[in-house]
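Dear support,

I submitted the protein below through the web form. The confirmation email said the job was done, but the results page showed an empty box. After a refresh the structure appeared. I'm attaching both so you can tell me whether what I see now is the final result or a partial one.
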Amino acid sequence: MSNKSKSSGRQNPKNTTTTPAASASNNANSPAHRDSDSDRAQGDVAEDIANIFSVLKQISGELQTLVEIRQATSLMEEKLTTLVTRISEVEGKLGFLEESDNQLKANPPATRAEVAALSERLDDLEDRSRQNYLRFVGFPEGCESGDPVKFLEMVLPDMLGTPIGDKERFIERAHRLGPRASKDRRSGWTLIARFMCSGDRERFLRAAQGKGELRWSSKRVMIFPDFSRGTVAKRDAFRECKKILHRRGVKFALQYPATTITTKEGSRRFDNPKAQLSRDIRIRLIQFKVLHRFYWYRNRLARDERNVRLLEMCR
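What the results page shows now:
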């Protein structure tokens, strides 16, 4: 029976039934269905290409950002290297300064006050070593004829009117300061002399101060004590003050090392030339104001008197 049915199945195809799966496979194999699948596949490929392109574009942008970051990082590394180098140099200098500071603390130098005190003491010692010296300014060049000691011993007693008694010599040595003068310089260089006795030196100096203006062969001669450079600078600072005092007729004295003493309106001492100048300027301003007020009142009185006369004449 089975064989018959099988044989009958092969002989009668009309009696066979078609399943849904078989129909679907038949539809898939159709030409229309194949065209739609190819279109769908092409669309998917285009979408994938677009996605890939956008991803590549994003990656290229990120790569550009990475390049910029690397450049900035390299610049930062260079700056950091420079900073490290400078910091190391500063550390070295700080170490040197610390070492120097420790050395200064171990052996402190002299302060300004100490240096000024030492300078004053040196000036004082130098001035004491020059106690027997005098400077002579105004003697023409060559007047001593090669022997300044003999020349001064002959000229000073007669010029100053100071007898020397029975002394044969009272000057130990003398010489010119600086090189020989040129032809266009008539007064010559300063002549300096060292006296054997400080008493003779003081006597001649006081005689010169009492004489005032000294003349020798119609040449003006000035005599000064010999001081150190520091003392001379201090005394020169009062030059303007001395000029003002001379013009005003005020008696004053310049004591050693540099102190002016005025005797007008009470004795006053000035160790600072600026303080003395400021006081003198204040006095001048007061005098000017007083004079100005006096002349103003005088002119006003004269004007009032003239007005009174005019009124009387009008009457």
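Response: this is the final, complete result; the empty box was a page-load delay. The longest strand covers residues 219-225.
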